Amino acid sequence: MSVFAASCGASKICAIESNVSLCSLAKRVLSLNGVDGAKVIRDYSFNYRPEDGDLADIVVSEILDCCAFGEGVIPTFLDAHLRLATNMARFIPANVTLYATLVESPTIYLSHAFTSPSGKEYRSEYVRTSDGREYSLVGLAAPSKL
Description:
Layout: H1 2-7, E1 14-17, H2 20-32, E2 39-42, E3 56-60, H3 73-84, E4 85-92, H4 106-110, E5 113-115, E6 121-123
Parallel strand pairs: 1-2, 3-4
Antiparallel strand pairs: 5-6
């Protein structure tokens, strides 16, 4: 992404990567592509402290995972908005669309519940059936393994 930023005319480039191997690879790729002066920092963006007034106009990230909420996406982008970017900065990606399908499954429901040795049932307050009923663990077979 830093090479692309350079090819688009970015005057300053700061790449932040927490993974040691990927950080080394980024340095090598920048060098092989003749991108001089790009700053490559091996750390988490939370730990990075920009020099006075050295805030980003554009923040490009590949932190998104398959569901958009893993890998600390929300706290990372919020921190970047508050500390690392100008008020008018553009973020890429700027939004995400999530799709969901509702599923009712005793097997999935049971994976969010357990019975203590005393016989008390515990289950997540967020898992319910469509009609509000709760499944009982008594009399239901254990979930099968795939």
